[in-house]
Amino acid sequence: MPIVSISLNDEILSELDKLQTSMGFSGRSEAIRAGIRAFVSEEKQKSDLSGDIHAILLVVHNDEFDHVVSGITHNFEDLITTHLHSKIEKEKCMELFVIDGDAEKVSIMTKDFQTNKNMDTVKLVAI
Description:
- The chain is of the alpha+beta class.
- The chain has two domains: 10-46, Arc Repressor Mutant (Orthogonal Bundle); 50-126, Alpha-Beta Plaits, CATH 3.30.70.
- The chain is 43% helix and 31% strand.
- It has helices at 10-23, 28-47, 66-74, 103-114, and strands at 52-62, 80-89, 92-102, 119-126.
- A four-stranded antiparallel sheet has the order 2-3-1-4, covered by helices on one side.
- A hairpin with a 2-residue loop joins strand 2 (80-89) and strand 3.
- Helix 1 (10-23) packs across helix 2 (28-47).
- The N and C termini lie far apart (38 Å).
């Protein structure tokens, strides 16, 4: 089996260790493999979407990056039927987008958030 080396900051490593314990993984590698499998499965499901879809997109970020969210949002105004912004704790914000439109465009919007290193969480749920 090939070996892949990754670097994690202390916060992520601590969270990984908590997950390993709470979920009963035998080691960090097993927990990381499970996370990668879930990520691959989720991405495959999104790539299989086609036609017009209804979806919910959840984005969590630090409030200092509101301008980044606004920039991405403006590029996809034609898809967004509802946009809720909420302060969830200290400097964290949550954006909830209700989306209706072309699956390919929804995927592009989602990827724009996912690939932006300033976003903490990005989750798409197709309805």
